């Protein structure tokens, strides 16, 4: 059982079972579908978090018989002594199915939990913290939230979106802590200070 792929070549010609519905699961499904001896993708629901184009390509492979897709969750491992033989899956229709394979690739995402933050009096929407999109500040001044833990109209749970949120929140935090101090924008292509910090000062 693998939680990341270190050497894709080792999976060529193997019977594979992949778990997950995000970009990592779909990317590796598409990459390995034509190389594995057999490949089955298992996801707990009909909706995917992966890019729609990847999901569409996966369904094309299923329709062409190049791979299988099973909607369900893992129940138990199938083993022979210490040797992995497959996974028993409970399908969404309630039935059990044994998926035999030589390798299982597991790409489950992390679900952020608020813990004690849920008791801070923050405005919540479906267990996510509501923020504005100018500063990514919550309903309580001085408390900011970025990444999967927040929500706002049009929210996309992408790493790129997280970088954008963090950048705007950082400027807002600086202004909140030092209202009279201006924070200038500096660019790695032109700022000697930034280039020195990156260790490329004076590079041609």
Task: Write a concise keyword list for the protein shown above.
FAD/NAD(P)-binding domain, 9 strands, alpha/beta, 204 residues, single chain, elongated
What does this molecule look like?
- This protein has 204 residues and is of the alpha/beta class.
- The chain folds into two domains: 8-106, FAD/NAD(P)-binding domain; 115-177, FAD/NAD(P)-binding domain.
- The chain is 23% helix and 24% strand.
- It contains four helices and nine strands.
- The protein has helices at 23-32, 52-63, 159-177, 192-197, and strands at 15-19, 38-43, 68-80, 83-91, 96-100, 103-106, 124-125, 128-130, 150-151.
- The protein has a six-stranded mixed β-sheet. The chain has a three-stranded mixed β-sheet with strand order 7-8-9, with no helix packed on it.
- A hairpin with a 4-residue loop joins strand 4 (83-91) and strand 5 (96-100).
- It is elongated.
- It starts with 14 loop residues before the first strand and ends in a 7-residue tail after the last helix.
- The mean pLDDT is 92.
In angstroms, what separates the terminal alpha carbons? 47 Å
Quote the average pLDDT. Answer: 92
Oligomer designation: single chain
Q: What topology, given as strand order, has the largest sheet? A: 5-4-3-2-1-6
What's the total number of strands? 9
What class, by secondary structure content?
Answer: alpha/beta
Low-confidence stretches: none
Question: Over all CA atoms, what is the radius of gyration?
Answer: 23 Å
Query: What CATH architecture label of the largest domain applies?
Result: 3-Layer(bba) Sandwich
**Number of domain modules:** 2
Query: And the CATH topology of the largest domain?
Result: FAD/NAD(P)-binding domain
Output the number of helix runs.
4
Order of helices and strands: EHEHEEEEEEEHH
Mind summarizing the main beta sheet? 6 strands, mixed
The portion of residues assigned to helices is 10-25%
Principal-axis shape equals: elongated
Q: How large a portion of the residues is in β-strands, by DSSP E?
A: 15-25%
CATH superfamily of the largest domain, by name, is FAD/NAD(P)-binding domain
CATH class category label of the largest domain: Alpha Beta
């Amino acid at each position: 059982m693998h939680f990341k792929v270190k050497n894709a070549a080792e999976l060529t010609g193997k019977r594979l079972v992949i778990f997950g519905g995000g970009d990592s699961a779909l990317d590796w499904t598409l990459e390995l579908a034509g190389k594995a001896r057999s490949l089955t993708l298992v996801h707990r629901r009909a909706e995917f978090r992966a890019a729609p184009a990847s999901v569409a390509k996966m369904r094309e492979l299923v329709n062409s018989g190049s791979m299988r897709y099973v909607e369900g969750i893992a129940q138990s491992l199938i083993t022979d002594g210490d040797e992995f033989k497959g996974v028993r899956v409970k399908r969404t229709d309630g039935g059990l199915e044994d998926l035999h394979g030589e390798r299982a690739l597991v790409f489950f995402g992390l679900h952020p939990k608020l813990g004690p933050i849920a008791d801070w009096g923050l405005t919540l929407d479906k267990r996510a913290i509501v923020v504005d999109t100018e500063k990514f500040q919550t309903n309580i001044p001085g408390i900011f939230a970025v990444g999967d833990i927040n929500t706002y109209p049009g929210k996309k749970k992408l790493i790129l979106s997280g970088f954008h949120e963090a950048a705007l929140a950082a400027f807002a935090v600086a202004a909140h802590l030092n209202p009279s101090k201006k924070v200038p924008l500096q660019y790695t292509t032109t700022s000697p200070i930034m280039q020195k910090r990156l260790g490329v000062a004076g590079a041609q």
